[in-house]
Amino acid sequence: MKSQTRSEPEVITIDVHKANHLLRNGDYRYLDVRTKEEFMKGHVDFDDALNIPYMFVTHQGRVKNENFLEQVLSLCNKGDHLVVGCQSGIRSVYASNILLEAGFKNVYNMGGGYVAWVENDLPVLTPKLEL
């Protein structure tokens, strides 16, 4: 007999084309979990894009943002529909998992991240740098 284990929410990964479709035609928000520096170099062109880093770059290397969930909850509700992306699709898996474990129901991880988005010639916004 199989032992009962607690059911963990499963991260669902979608490709950039599906992500683009959901963002343009659904009630989804884009949550970019890259660093602010990465975000400012260019990001998914979507009016309501949020940037809440999952990790920070420090002198010791990358460090997890201990306030990530709290920061997301200050801007989003657990019922919001989110597409979570990062640079290549790794950090966004971890971030999506945290959100699902916290009770978010409508979360998709964008596979391949910003790199795949750019490679597929999808719309990009590059903020103007202040001189």
Report on the structure:
GO terms for molecular function: catalytic activity. It comes from Mikania micrantha. This is Rhodanese domain-containing protein. Residues 24-126 form the Rhodanese domain. It is a single chain. With 131 residues, this protein is α/β, with parallel strands linked by helices. The chain has a single domain (12-122), classed as Oxidized Rhodanese, domain 1 (3-Layer(aba) Sandwich), CATH 3.40.250.10. The protein has helices at 16-25, 36-41, 68-75, 91-101, 113-119, and strands spanning 12-14, 28-32, 43-44, 50-51, 55-58, 61-64, 81-85, 106-110, 124-125. It has a 5-stranded parallel sheet, with helices on both faces. Strands 3-9 form a two-stranded antiparallel ribbon. A two-stranded antiparallel sheet has the order 5-6. Strand 7 (81-85), helix 4 and strand 8 (106-110) form a beta-alpha-beta unit. The relative contact order is 0.25.
